[in-house]
Amino acid sequence: MSPAWFLANRNPGRAEEGKQMVQISYPATFRPDEDARPVVRFPDLREAATDGKDMAEAFEEAMDCLGSSLAHRLVNKEEIPYPSKPKRGQRMVPVPLWIAPKIALYWAMKEAGVNKVELARKLGVRETVVRRMLHPDHATKAEKIQIALETLGKRFLVVVEDAA
């Protein structure tokens, strides 16, 4: 993955020796508008913006907006940038679980220089299976994406932490 991604999301206390563990989340700004409603913008995804009546609602809306923006990029075969390092005043917004594995697979394929046809051949499946794994509207079983990631030398983990 890109150096900015590792620097922004490095979690050395949890990774196995010699391995990197990354969190899939994007930095966002939360600023009040003229009516004091928090407006959320994602510097890495210029098209993604939302708001809420208060900070709690704005954060929930931000996660939904982030998922929708990434889904739109997957469907339209647009570049999905790695998250940048958060700047002062920005909060990290996690990518929703319904799309995070698909984004992880997209990045793993990109890093490995593997297209859908090549990954399908490695997995012993049709290209349509890989296409569905990446499509946000297809409810791919997590196990299939895990196998695809392992084929590309990656693992997808879900971690539960105490809330701050």
Describe the structure.
With 164 residues, this protein is of the alpha+beta class. It has 2 domains: 3-94, Double Stranded RNA Binding Domain; 100-151. It is built from 6 helices and 4 strands; from the N terminus they run αβββαβαααα. It has a 4-stranded antiparallel sheet, covered by helices on one side. Helix 3 (100-112) runs parallel beside helix 6. It is elongated and about 55 Å long.
Please describe the structure with a list of short key phrases separated by commas or semicolons:
alpha+beta; 2 domains; Double Stranded RNA Binding Domain; disordered N terminus; 164 residues; 6 helices; 4 strands; 4-stranded antiparallel beta sheet; 41% helix; elongated
Please describe the topology of this protein.
Elements: H1 3-9, E1 25-32, E2 38-41, E3 49-51, H2 55-75, E4 90-94, H3 100-112, H4 116-123, H5 127-134, H6 142-151
Antiparallel strand pairs: 1-2, 1-4, 2-3
Helix pairs in contact: 3-6, 4-5
Percent of residues in helices: 40-55%
Distance between the termini: 27 Å
CATH class of the largest domain: Alpha Beta
Tally of structural domains = 2
DSSP, total strands: 4
Structural class by sheet pairing and helices: alpha+beta
Q: Which strand order spans the largest sheet, edge to edge or round the barrel?
A: 3-2-1-4
User: Low-confidence runs (pLDDT<50, min 5 residues)?
Assistant: 1-15
- The coarse overall form would be elongated
